[in-house]
C-alpha cells in the first residue's frame, strides 16, 4: 500500500496556513521520518493524515483513493496510529487496551473470542510486556503504557503505522527494542511514518527523512545521504555553532556521587546499568 500526500495545505479559520504545499510519498515497506522542531506543523500533518482535520486543500490518498472516502472501519484496517500521550478514562487492563486494536473485527456488543485474546497477548509478547497483561493500564509507567499502545496498533494488522514521538517516555533500552520492532515491521512489507525531533533515532533506522519548518517541507533526503549537522541546519534554518565552554576547575568537594548503579524490574530489560558519575561544588 502506498500513501501519497499531494500539495497539502491547511489553515485554521482566520489564521495563516499551518501547512503549506506539503507533498511526499510512502511506498510499501518504507520507513519515512518526519523531522522538525516544535511548531513545525508535524502534529497538524498527522491529524490530517488520520482524518481528524478535513478542511484542507490538496489530497491524501491510499493506493490512489482519497482517504476522505474511507469509513472509520476501513481506515482502521489500513492505518494504525500510536499517540504520544494517552490518558485512559476507565481502569482497563493492559490486555484490554491491546484488545481495542481488534474492535473492527467485532460487532458493537460482541465480546472478544479466546483467539482474539491470544492475538493480543502475542502482540504484548512481541513488545516485551506480556507480563503486564493483567495490570491496570493507568498504573503502568509511561514507557510501559507506550509499549502497550504499540501492541494495540500491532493488533490492528494495518499496513501503515503512524507514530507520534513514540520514544518520548521510553528508556534507552525500551527505545532500542522499539527500533528493532520497526525494522522487523517494515521488513515484512508494511510502512511506518515516524514523527520525531530526535535526530539520533532518525539516523539509526529511517529510510527517508522529510524535514519540516514553519509548515513547509524544506527538504526530503535519504538517510545514507545526510548527517545530523545537515538535518539540524534544515530544521533550524541556519548553521548551528556550539557555544564555547569555559574550562573550570573540577576539583571541588563532591556533593553527589553514583558508582555502578543498576536497576532492573522483574521480567523486564535493565533500566540502568553501571551508571557512575560525580557532581562537585
Class from helix and strand fractions: alpha/beta
Residue stretches low in confidence (pLDDT < 50, at least 5 long) are: none
Mean pLDDT: 86
The end-to-end span amounts to 58 Å
Biggest sheet details: 6 strands, mixed
H/E element sequence: EEEHEEHEHHHEHEHEEHEE
Measured as a percent range, the helix fraction is 25-40%
- Number of distinct beta strands: 12
Molecular structure report:
- With 281 residues, the chain is of the alpha/beta class.
- The chain has 8 helices and 12 strands.
- Strands 6-7-8-3-9-10 form a 6-stranded mixed sheet, with helices on both faces.
- α4 (114-126) packs across α5.
- The chain is globular.
Keyword list:
single chain, 6-stranded mixed beta sheet, alpha/beta, 281 residues
Outline:
With 281 residues, this protein is an alpha/beta fold. The protein has helices at 42-49, 72-76, 94-99, 114-126, 142-155, 172-187, 199-205, 228-236, and strands spanning 3-10, 19-26, 31-35, 57-62, 65-66, 79-82, 160-164, 191-196, 208-213, 216-222, 254-263, 272-280.
Please specify the SSE layout and strand pairing.
Layout: E1 3-10, E2 19-26, E3 31-35, H1 42-49, E4 57-62, E5 65-66, H2 72-76, E6 79-82, H3 94-99, H4 114-126, H5 142-155, E7 160-164, H6 172-187, E8 191-196, H7 199-205, E9 208-213, E10 216-222, H8 228-236, E11 254-263, E12 272-280
Parallel strand pairs: 3-8, 3-9, 6-7, 7-8
Antiparallel strand pairs: 1-2, 1-4, 4-5, 9-10, 11-12
Helix pairs in contact: 4-5
